[in-house]
């Protein structure tokens, strides 16, 4: 399975998306990630494991705490995948614009 597939699959779960979005602004410890979520802390830890395996987050140990933060590697894999579609869409748009321009001459 490719990095982009793992990343998209990981974010397919609404709870994992909420966890990922919590980390958007700053790194957090699991206790802060779990705040406000409707799942147990062990469940949050399992979701974090999936996100880590998908390379969407990374862990930095600070003393006795694990601090989770966004990992750009997984985001880059998804972006590279989506860029293929964007490039195709832009090429099709350019072709349509050129054809319209020729028709209007």
Topology-level CATH name: Arc Repressor Mutant, subunit A
Report strand order across the widest sheet. 1-3-2
Low-confidence stretches: none
Number of helices: 5
What structural class do helix, strand and pairing data support? alpha+beta
Could you give a short account of the major beta sheet? Answer: 3 strands, antiparallel
CATH superfamily: Winged helix-like DNA-binding domain superfamily/Winged helix DNA-binding domain
Order of helices and strands: HHEHHEEH
Regarding quaternary structure, how should these chains be classified? single chain
CATH architectural label: Orthogonal Bundle
Care to give the gist of this entry?
The protein has about 100 residues and is of the alpha+beta class.
Write up this protein.
With 105 residues, the protein is α+β, with helices and mostly antiparallel strands. It has one domain: Arc Repressor Mutant, subunit A (Orthogonal Bundle). Helix content is 64%, strand content 13%. It is built from 5 helices and 3 strands. Strands 1-3-2 form a 3-stranded antiparallel β-sheet. The protein is elongated, with a radius of gyration of 19 Å. The model has no long low-confidence stretch (mean pLDDT 91).
């Amino acid at each position: 399975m490719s990095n982009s597939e793992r990343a998209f699959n990981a974010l397919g779960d609404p709870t994992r998306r909420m966890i990922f979005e919590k980390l958007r602004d700053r790194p957090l410890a699991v206790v802060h990630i779990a705040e406000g979520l409707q799942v147990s802390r062990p469940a949050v830890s399992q979701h974090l494991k999936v996100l880590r395996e998908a390379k969407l987050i990374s862990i930095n140990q600070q003393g006795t705490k694990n601090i989770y933060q966004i990992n750009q590697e997984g985001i880059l894999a998804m972006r590279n995948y989506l860029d293929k579609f964007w490039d195709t869409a832009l090429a099709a748009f350019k072709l349509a614009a050129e054809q319209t321009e020729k028709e209007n001459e």
